[in-house]
Structures are given as C-alpha cells and as structure tokens.
Amino acid sequence: MNDKVIISCALTGAWPRKEQNPAVPYTPQEIADAAYASWKAGAAIVHLHMRDDEGNGTMDKEKFKESVRLIREHKDCDAVINCTSSGAVNPTEDERLAHFIEIPEIEMGSCDIGSFNWGDNAIFDNSPDFLKKLCNVYNEHDIKPEVEIFDYGMIGNAKHYMEKGFIKSPMWCELVLGVLGGMDATVENLLYLAQHLPEGTIWSACGIGKAHLPIMYAALALGGHLRVGLEDNLYMSHGVKGTNPLMVERAVRVVKDFGKEPATSAEAREILGIKPFNR
C-alpha cells in the first residue's frame, strides 16, 4: 500500500459562506450530493460538518442522520464517512457526541486534541475531560479518531492519549496548518510536525486558503496523505472559485503525476485499520 495516497474531502466546514462561494453546501441534500460527487472524483473519505437553516455551523444530530442517509442511498458509494466533533458556536458536550452514538454508519470522527484561540474571536475548547469522553465514545462505537493537530504541543497530547489507551494504533493524524492561533502553513512547519509524530502514525495534511497547494505538494513529498475541500479553501486559483469535486480531481492528478495512486475507500480502510464496509 506504499504507493497509495488517501484523499479526504472536507466538504463544507462551519464557517465558509455561499456568499463567498455558491458551491459551499448547506443542506443535507447538498452535502450528500457533494459527498457523492467527490467520492466519484476520487476521494476515499468525506468529512462532514452540518449547517442550520441560515447556513451557520450546527451539531444537529438529525441533520447528520439525514446527510448520512442520503449518502448511503447511493448503492455504489462506499466512501468512508468522517464526521466532525465540533463545528458550532459553543455546543454542549452532549451535542458534540450524540451523532456518533446514534448513527452506526459513521466510521471516523475528528478529535481536536487540544484547545487554542481560534483566530481573534473564539476559544476552541477541547478540555482533557471532553477528549477522554470523546475517545471513549469512539472506542465504544468502533469509530476511528482523526486526530487533528494545529500546533506542535498537540503532538504531545496525542502521545499522552495513546499511552493511556484512549487512542489506538495506528493513529491517524490530520495536520492542519494556517489557522490563526495554530502553526503557519509553511513547508518548514509541516516537515517539523511530520518528523515528530509517534512512530507508526499515518498522517495527512491540509493548508488553509492559498497554502493548500504548497502543503499538498510537500505532504506528498514527505510520504503523507491529502485533504482538500471547501472547508479549507474556496478557490482553485486566484479569483477562480472551486468546487469539492474539482479539488478532488486536481488532487488525483497531482498524486498520479507524483507516481502514486489514489487509494480507494476500501484501501483507505485497510491502511487505517477500519473494518471493511458492510452495507
């Protein structure tokens, strides 16, 4: 599997707006349509956030249920479904956990492994107590954590939770660079993080905004996997708005030009230690 690269597509996030790019999906139907099209384009994993009726981030478990149901209505689609554990303003812990408990089709969930100032207007609160609860839910429901690393100190947190048994090997990390409050999206920072991950960690990376391409190329060169999508970046190039499938198609071309192959969803499950898909 050394020649296989997992492409994840983060479809909408909590903050991008249709006013910025009309392709940002809001409704469960739009999210499911984007997920299916992105999977068809070559994404092995689709990462889901939800939006309320005004387009704001929400942790509404019913919207997660509907989006997942609509994705799985496509009988040919075996995309790995990865749902966020954050994505709204000040959600309760129960709201952050409910969909993982109630939706058996969820195979992967984000695990933001530390707290920090998100930009200049909010605290991204991931307390130790919450992280233990989250990891326990993931372990109880056979959900693979996607350990999100925004800064070097979070690698220490991840090692700690691995040593305590909350996160199982092989650990899957997403290195997210370019969020104000975390590490800048530079190749130097990506290299530093990748060199300090625990042995055996499988990792992917994304750069926010205009950093998406430099981080994509660097991640490939360093042996990592890729994340693309409108959650992280709204443009294909300066002034040219993107869509989720177009970003996946470009990632597929880059992977092939690099001499590797995009992993299928089945191959991604095998690489990550996720049980085979069973409809």
- Compute the number of helices: 9
N-to-C series of helices and strands: EEHEEEHEHEEEHEHEHEHEEEHEH
Average pLDDT score: 97
The largest sheet has its strands arranged as 2-3-6-7-10-11-12-13
N/C terminus separation: 24 Å
> Which second-level CATH architecture applies?
Alpha-Beta Barrel
Which descriptors would you attach to this protein?
16 strands, alpha/beta, 8-stranded parallel β-barrel, globular, TIM Barrel, 279 residues, two-stranded parallel ribbon
How would you summarize this macromolecular structure in one to three sentences?
This protein is α/β, with parallel strands linked by helices and 279 residues long. It has helices at residues 28-41, 61-72, 93-102, 128-140, 153-163, 187-196, 212-221, 244-257, 265-272; strands spanning 4-5, 7-10, 45-48, 50-51, 57-58, 80-83, 108-112, 116-118, 122-124, 144-149, 172-177, 202-207, 225-228, 235-237, 240-241, 261-262. An eight-stranded parallel beta barrel has the order 2-3-6-7-10-11-12-13, surrounded by seven helices. Strands 1-16 form a two-stranded parallel sheet. Strands 4-5 form a two-stranded antiparallel ribbon.
